[in-house]
Design brief:
single chain, 190 residues, alpha+beta, Beta-Lactamase, two-stranded antiparallel sheet, 44% helix, globular
Length: 190
């Protein structure tokens, strides 16, 4: 991360990402910039840290192989849109508002009814079909609540938790690649 003063923050980020293996985890900076990812995250979304915020919105909300493997996409997209709406309202940042509009444009292509929205969980819980293995997940976020420095205050660590029995499918089988994602080899199975 740079300065000597941020070395402890850097160690925390590395420890959390490494300690969360084999589950996916990544470090995000406002607005939707993925700075780091562990091997579990790279297996799920190859090239994650090399994608622009717009490419990530297209990957998650747009049509394509990633959407096709999320079995509960209408519910997951509603939770994702709610998070983006909250971030846009909270920050007033025009870039976040633009990303929200881009995501909403993609979501229009899919039928997302009020009933789907009512059934959506309070957090993002995508259910993946990874090569015939059904993997249920729940997402959680860590942040530096006591940060007094701007860079650190903008960081979030996002963690994906699947049940223990599904550890191997996430590591052994990543998603179909988006054309924008660089080709990387998935991490070996534990």
């Amino acid at each position: 991360m740079g300065s000597q003063a941020l070395k402890p923050v850097d160690r925390v980020l590395e420890n959390v990402l490494g300690g969360h293996e084999p589950y996916p985890a990544w470090v995000v900076r406002h607005p939707f910039t993925f700075l780091r990812a562990n091997a579990g995250a790279e297996a799920l979304i190859p090239g994650l840290t090399q994608l622009s915020p717009g490419q990530l919105i297209d990957l998650w909300f747009g049509p394509g192989p990633f959407r096709d493997q999320v079995l509960n996409w209408p519910q997951a997209v509603q939770a994702g849109l709610a998070a983006l709406r909250h971030a846009a309202a909270d920050t007033g940042d025009p870039e976040v508002t633009g990303l929200l509009r881009r995501a909403e444009t993609h979501a229009q292509d899919y039928l997302v009814t009020p009933e789907v929205q009512a059934e959506s969980p309070p957090v993002i819980c995508p259910v993946f079909d990874l090569g015939g293995h059904i993997v249920r997940t729940i997402s959680a976020v860590m942040r530096f609540d006591t940060a007094v420095e701007v860079t650190t205050s903008q960081l979030r660590i996002e963690l994906m938790f699947p049940p223990m029995m599904t550890r191997r499918p996430i590591r052994a089988h990543g998603p179909a690649r988006s054309p924008a994602a660089p080709k990387t080899a998935p991490a070996p199975s534990p």
